[in-house]
TrEMBL record:
It comes from Candidatus Cryptobacteroides faecigallinarum. GO terms for molecular function: ATP binding; ATP hydrolysis activity. The keyword Nucleotide-binding applies. This is ATP-binding protein. The lineage of its organism: Bacteria, Pseudomonadati, Bacteroidota, Bacteroidia, Bacteroidales. The keyword Hydrolase does not apply. InterPro entries: ATPase_AAA_core, Bact_Antivir_Def_Nuclease, P-loop_NTPase. Keywords: ATP-binding, Nucleotide-binding. CDD domains: ABC_ATPase (cd00267). Pfam families: AAA_21. Residues 130-187 form the ATPase AAA-type core domain.
């Protein structure tokens, strides 16, 4: 697998009579050309056949560890099992049904190894195989795949976590893709925690994936679940009752919060926690771009003014940095107060809106102290105008904003849909109810 010569695969028909296909390296069908030089080790549940019940198992010299490998085995064995046993010598043993590294100590020999030690010996042997390949073929070794069925078998929870940490270490150092299945909740919880940590940095965002396999209607389906609570519920065939937790929402200012609450339906507003924190557009974008956890999915939703759309796409490298989209803009191409000002300025002086607000309210009253040009050019004065006029517009400025809302139904509908879609992504990850 030379980096300069990519291995491209194409599908071809096996024969003209059947519809079956096979995969082959594109461009050549020479003998052996379809094979990818990529070592794979699969550890099935067969490895767990008890040593003490295997009448044919015996010591073998087929695998001989170097002095350094022996020392490393001892360290890994005791690190993972959190054991203080004095290991005298690891012994390679094999039979028709299994081959593994047994442990001889000053108190017992390999015939008395526990099922956990047996399982661990096989896994460590696999890791050392990859390390040998790396050392023996430094110019050709590209890594490999280690697949383990029921990783946690016969290991107590603390050892499962230690084994997980060792596997991560070896995977990184020797470029091993490790795939394992498990039903262990402590191990799954650890994997979910590490997954979240990896998401904080673009360089590690794809290091861990968690897939949940389940059987439905005779088919095996997989789901990319990131919430430990959801996995726990499914494995326990139960449903935890959580209060409807809210998602934190950051906006630029009070005006934006007032505007948003007038645009969104009640069932969506009730799921959002609008933090009374004012931060500028540039500051919020920087916090997301720098992957500050509190400002990323699924911790928060960020809603910026309509004029921030260009900045969002130019400054946040979503795909390249592995950041899930949790930043959206309000409808329109300007701040809420300016959007309302421009809309009201273009209303006829005889429009029913003015007298609906108050019999004595008028367009002249609305723009008496601030012209539209001043509002559009000066953000501070735009806010001052909005706050002065909002006292006439009813609770939460609803009379003016809802008037604007009726005239911008498509833009508002798109905004509501966008907020709902992002909320449902949060809900899916955190195990909350999805909004329909």
């Amino acid at each position: 697998m030379d980096d300069l010569e990519p291995f491209t695969v194409e599908s071809i028909k096996r024969d003209s009579k059947s519809n079956s296909i096979r995969f082959w390296q594109k461009g050549t069908r020479e003998k052996g050309s379809g094979y990818l030089q990529y070592p794979v080790i699969y550890l099935s549940l067969k490895r767990l056949f008890p040593i003490g019940e295997d009448d044919q198992i015996k010591e073998s010299s087929k695998v001989v560890l170097s002095p350094q490998e022996i020392e490393d085995f001892k360290k890994l064995h005791n690190e993972i099992l959190i054991s203080f046993d004095k290991i005298e010598q690891p012994q390679y043993v094999e039979s028709k049904d299994k081959n593994t590294l047994g442990v001889n100590t000053d108190q017992y020999d390999w015939m008395l190894n526990s099922a956990g030690q047996d399982n661990l010996g096989k896994i460590i042997l696999a890791l050392m195989s990859f390390r040998r390949l790396s050392a023996t073929y430094p110019n050709n070794y590209k890594g490999g795949i280690l697949a383990i069925d029921e990783l946690d078998s016969a290991l107590y929870p603390a050892s499962q976590i230690k084994l997980f940490e060792v596997l991560r270490r070896y995977a990184s150092k020797y470029n091993i893709q490790i795939i394992f299945t498990t039903h262990s909740l402590p191990l799954i919880k650890k994997a979910c925690e590490v997954y979240k940590e990896c998401q904080l940095h673009s360089t590690s965002s794809d290091q861990i994936q968690i897939l949940y396999l389940e059987k439905k209607d005779g088919n095996i389906l997989f789901t990319n679940i990131k919430s430990y609570d959801t996995i726990q519920n499914r494995l326990n065939v139960s449903l935890s009752v959580h209060p409807c937790s809210k998602i934190n929402v950051y906006t630029e200012d009070d005006e934006a919060r007032i505007f948003i609450k007038n645009l969104l339906p009640r069932n969506l507003i009730s799921r959002l926690n609008f933090l009374q924190v004012n931060m500028g557009c540039d500051q919020l974008i920087a916090l997301v771009s720098n992957r500050i956890p509190a400002f990323l999915m699924p911790q928060s939703l960020i809603i910026l003014d309509g004029d921030a759309s260009v900045k969002i796409n130019s400054r946040i490298k979503w795909e390249r940095r592995g950041i899930e989209r949790n930043v959206i803009c309000l409808p329109g191409m300007c701040s809420p107060e300016r959007a309302i000002a421009e809309y009201l300025y273009n209303l006829s002086e005889s429009d029913s809106f003015w007298t609906t607000v108050n019999p004595d309210y008028s367009k002249q009253v609305c723009f008496r102290d601030y012209s539209l040009d001043i509002i559009k050019s000066d953000r501070v004065k735009a806010k001052a105008w909005f706050n002065e006029q909002s006292v006439y517009w009813g609770k939460a400025s609803n009379k003016a904003i809802r008037k604007w809302k009726k005239e911008n139904e498509d833009a508002v509908a798109n905004f509501v849909s966008e907020v709902r879609d992002i909320y449902n992504k949060f809900a899916s990850e955190l195990g909350y109810d999805i909004l329909r």
